[in-house]
Amino acid sequence: MNAKYNVRLSESERTSLFELAKTGKAAAYKIKHANILLKSDKNGPNWSVKRIAEAFSVHRNTVRNVCQRLVENGLNAALGRKEKEPSRPRKLSEKQEEQLLELANGKAPDGRKRWTLHLLAGQLVELQIVEDSISHESVRKVPKKNEIKPHIIEKWCIPPKEDAAFVAAMEEVLDVYHWPYNPKEPRVCMDEQPVQFVKEVRVASNDIKSNRQVYDNEYERNGTGNVFMFVEPWKGWRNVNVTERRTALDWAKQIRELVDVHFPDAEKIHLIMDNLNTHNTSSLYQAFPPEEARRIARKLDIHYTPKHGSWLNMAEIELSVLTNQCLDRRIPDRPTMIEEIDAWQSERNLQEATTNWTFNIQRARFKMKSTYPKIDGQTSAQN
User: Fold this and answer.
1) Please, which residues have CB within 8 angstroms of residue 56's CB and are 6 or more apart in sequence?
2) Same structural domain for residues 191 and 219?
3) Which residues contact 356 (CB under 8 A, 6 or more apart)?
4) Containing domain of residue 53, as a range?
5) 84, part of any domain
6) Is residue 303 a part of any domain in this protein?
7) Phi, psi at residue 229, to the nearest 5°?
8) Interatomic CA distance for residues 287 and 248, integer angstroms
């Protein structure tokens, strides 16, 4: 025990603490503090701080603090909880905080992309919301407390309101997603995204202290390409190809490979994709003779996601996984990217990684009522 806070209980104090600990009618923390004081008593057991802490499952600092309060403030203070230090007065009143949040959520000043903490602090003074100056740190605590970050702009794919075309396309895709599995009619989601090849200007070096590779911030742009993603989410299969361009001919060649190489025995392939200008059977006629184009088209049953509804395409989810796990780094050229994607694809297919899609038509009609047209003043989703 620290000599500065030696506990020496009087007979009456010891009797009082024994009664308190024995009856068990007081608050649990008071009983624990009583036992700590009894075992700390120099005229009694005189246990060490370590032994007391282990016996009563408390931190050593708790033992020291209880003894300190007894020596400095008496028995009642030692049995009670530690008094909280008075908090600092608020820099802004509730009304001033509301005005600040309204300002932070509003339009940024001319010539500025967004609000900064310094700008907000200056504007509070300029608008005489605060009488005196206020630091940007005081401003920072208000948006943080209210979970508002004016420097972050969230972008969403917002569906239109009361749009029958959107609803029809959405419900068709959701209907296809919940069909029972049929190996003769596979459901394949397709999407694509542009990619950029980036070369290192300087060779990466190893940082001895952190045991990590260090890359120079300078790089060399080495051309672009396009990634085609085909995925059968219910079977955990995907196929990814990297092409030099994104044209109707490229798409047509990918579709022929899908039909003839990956699903040659399928009677019909249900293809879910967005309605990009190259994503239609006319591209097949640009790439192949009419007989060949017709043969491929007969194998397809195309289901388009609605405009502003690309999130309904499960291939987007798989592209996001590909980007985060494989492509989110500097890849110098197309052959290297093909090699890296092949390795990623093989692992994912071996794992048979599937997508757990739970959104259905019933949820859509409940969650997205505003997208359904109103019939006789009532949303059609409620009819």
Assistant:
1) 32, 35, 36
2) yes
3) none
4) 3-79
5) no
6) yes
7) -115, 125
8) 8
Q: How far apart are CA 20 and CA 38, in angstroms?
A: 11
Do residues 13 and 112 share a domain? Answer: no
For 298, the 3-state DSSP assignment is helix
Q: How far apart are CA 35 and CA 56, in angstroms?
A: 8
Model-level pTM?
0.63
Query: What is the number of other CB atoms lying within 10 angstroms of the CB of residue 359?
Result: 15
Q: Are 57 and 103 part of one and the same domain? A: no
CA torsion sign for 150, 151, 153, 154 is negative
SS3 106: coil
Instruction: Please check whether residues 100 and 68 belong to one and the same domain.
Output: no
pLDDT digits (tens, 9 = 90+) for 285-305: 999 999 999 999 999 999 999
CA dihedral 285, 289, 291, 296 (to 10 degrees): -50
49 in a domain, yes or no? yes
- The CATH number assigned to the domain holding 207 equals 3.30.420.10
Binned at pLDDT 50, 70 and 90, residue 156 comes out as: low
CA distances from 116 to 122, 138, 142, 285, 370 (A): 10, 13, 13, 54, 35
Which residue do the tokens 């297919």 mark? 349
Lowest mean pLDDT of 24-28, 260-264, 343-347, name the range: 24-28
Contact in structure between 240 and 227 (CB atoms under 8 Å): yes
pLDDT in tens, 167-217: 999 999 999 999 999 999 999 999 999 999 998 888 777 766 666 777 778
Are 159 and 368 contacting, i.e. CB atoms less than 8 angstroms apart? yes
User: Total structural domains in the chain?
Assistant: 3
The amino acid present at 62, given as its one-letter code, is T
Residues 56 and 189 in one domain: no
Q: Please, what's the b/e burial string for 175-205 (b: 16 or more CB within 10 A of its CB; e: otherwise)?
A: eebeeeeeeeebbbbbbbbebebbeeeeeee
**Residue 89 belongs to some domain of the structure:** no
